[in-house]
Design brief:
Layout: H1 11-42, E1 98-100, E2 107-115, E3 118-124, E4 132-138, E5 143-150, E6 152-153, E7 158-159, E8 162-167, E9 172-177, E10 183-185, E11 194-200, E12 203-209, E13 212-214, E14 218-220, E15 223-229, E16 235-242, E17 246-251, E18 254-259, E19 265-270, E20 275-278, E21 285-292, E22 295-302, E23 305-312, E24 318-320, E25 326-333, E26 336-342, E27 347-353, E28 358-361, E29 369-375, E30 378-383, E31 395-400
Length: 401
Amino acid sequence: MVPSEPPEESLFSRILVVGALVALLVILGICVYVIYGYVSAGSGDSGVVTPTPVPTATPAPSRMATPVPTPTSTATPTDPFGQFPSVTPTPTPVYQNDVQVTQGLKVVARGVGIWEQYIVYDEWMELGPNAYKVHLYNINTRKDDVIAQGNVRSYGCIGSGKVGLLYGDSNKIMLYDIAGGQQQQVSPVNNIPRAYPSIYGNQLVFTGNEGNRNPQTGMLDIFGLYDYEFATGNINLLVHNIPEPNEPRGDGQYIVWWDVTGGGNIVLLDTKSIKSKNVSPEGAVSNHPRISGNTVVYHSVVGGIDHIFSYDITTGQTRQITSLGMQYSADVSGSRIVYDNDVDGKCDIWMFDRSTMQERQLTDEPHDQMYPQIYGNNVVYLDNRNYAANDNQWDLYVLSI
C-alpha cells in the first residue's frame, strides 16, 4: 500500500500564528516603555508625574528646651504717598471746660468774689502777716491786674462796678472804681476796727467795733453794722451793740450775717423795719451765709454732719439742699445754688436749681474743688489739681455753666 501524504496547513492556522507573534511583540514593547519611564523618573526627568510620597510619623518633641529663634528685623516700609496712618498721642483728659485764673499764688479762700465778667481775689504774699495783693481778673480778656498791695484786703467785695478795699493799718475802707481805676474813701475818718466789706445794689455794708479797752475790764466790744450809700455818700448805723457780726451780705432790703454766739447763728435783718431774727436751726453751728432775692443759703453742722441749708424769706421754710455727701461752702444767684460736696472722698462743685428742683454735678476732676462763688452763668472756685495732697495749695478756676 502506498503511504499517504501529510495534509497541507490551512490558511486559518497561518493567520493564528501571525497574530500570536504580533501580540507578543506588543507586550514586549509595553514592558520596555514602562521600564524606561521608571528609570527616567528616578533620574529627575520633569516629564513624568512624581508619585505621592508616603507620609512619615512626626518625631516626639525632645525634653530639652528648644531655643527661641532670634527674630529678624523687618525694614519699615516707605510711604511715598503718605497713606500710612500716623500715631496719635494719648490726649490729656479734660474733665470740665474750666479756665485757670491763678498759678502758684496763695489765694485767700474767703477773699474771692465775682461780678459780671470780673473776679476779685486776695493773694497772701508770705512776706509778713500784713502783706497782700488784691487782684482784679477779667474773664473775657483773661487779664489780671493788681489794684492794691500791702496791708489791704478785699474780702471778695465786688459789685456795681466797684471793689471794696479794707486797709488794715488805718481801718479805712476805700471803693475802687473798675472803669476809672480810682479809689475813694467811704468809711469815717475815726480809726476803729472794721471788717468784711460787701457790696449789694448801690450800697456797701461793713462791720465796726466802737468798744474801748480799760485796765479793769479789758476790751469792751461794741459791735455794729453800717452801710454806705453810693448815691448820697451817707453812712448809716443799721444795728448797734450786737454779737460780733461776720461776713454780712445783702440784697434788696435784707442783710444776713453770722455770729459766734452759741457756736454760730445765721441772722437776717430787714433794713426797712430794722427787725432781725435767727433763721438757722437751734443748737447748730452755722456760718458763711449768702443771699439772693428771698433765698438765704448757709453751711450748718447738724448731728455732726456738714450740710448746706436754704431759707426762704417769703415762706419762712428751711430745707436741706441735699443729703448726698457733706457740704461746706455755698453761694446763690437767682434760683441757682452752688456748693462744694464731698461724696466719694473728694470735693466737687454741685448745683441745685430751685426753679426745676434739680441737682447736678458741675465738676468731675479727680482733685478737690471748693469755695464756689456764682454770678450769672459763671462759677469761680479753688482747685488743688496742680499740687501734692499735703501742700495745702490752691489755684483759682472759673467755669461757665
